[in-house]
Design a protein that fits this description.
4 helices; 3-stranded antiparallel beta sheet; globular; 7 strands; about 190 residues
């Protein structure tokens, strides 16, 4: 009988019989921190309760990692949705900034109430952190994540301004992101602040 999954869908989506959406007081049981695959999600979760359906409209400030400096709040700079896992579902790439920027990637098949972060944030390697990148662009092409950023020159005396244009490329290999390349174009002068 198709009635039971439809009722379950209405409950998961927070719909009432009047067609209104009501906010959920607590995350659904499917929003546990366990590493589930999209095949493990209830049938009713897929149409309206997964992250892919929320995409750019999700409240990303509540899901990104906090700043190391606890006096700062992370600022979401940009959100891009594209399939990086290869499962045919759009994942969310969230550029966020504190003193510098990073990009966090969330699995599009995860529950919108508690999205699953894939691997560690990008731009968190010692090489990237040394440059203190500030994301200026984010895109996905054929599953490859391209991050454009302004950054500090390695070994520069002054950390007062970013003088290098950087392009990072990452790809998901298994369950980990691999940095494919880093292009560096020195400008010789301070770039505009984010």
């Amino acid at each position: 009988m198709r009635f039971v999954p439809f009722v379950a869908l209405m409950l998961v989506a927070g719909c009432t019989s009047g067609g209104e959406r009501t906010p959920s007081a607590s995350p659904s049981a499917a929003a546990s921190a366990s590493a589930s695959t999209s095949a493990d999600l209830p049938e009713a979760e897929a149409p309206g309760g997964n992250l892919a359906s929320a995409g750019k409209d999700a409240d990303w400030d509540t899901f990104v990692l906090p700043c190391e400096d606890k006096t700062q709040e992370p600022t979401v700079q940009q959100v891009v949705t594209a399939d990086v896992t290869g499962d045919g579902i759009a994942d969310a790439l969230v550029a966020r900034a504190c003193d510098s920027s990073t990009v966090e990637v969330f699995d599009g098949s995860s529950p919108a109430q508690r999205p699953w972060r894939i691997d560690q944030p990008l731009l968190s390697s010692p090489t990237a952190e040394l440059r203190r990148p500030w994301v200026t662009g984010l895109e996905v092409t054929s599953g490859e994540i391209i991050i454009k950023a302004d950054g500090h020159a390695v070994g520069a005396d002054s950390k007062a301004c970013r003088k290098d244009r950087l392009v990072f490329a990452f790809k998901l290999v298994g369950t980990d992101f691999t940095q494919l390349r880093l292009e560096n174009t020195p400008t010789g002068s301070c770039l505009p602040a984010g």
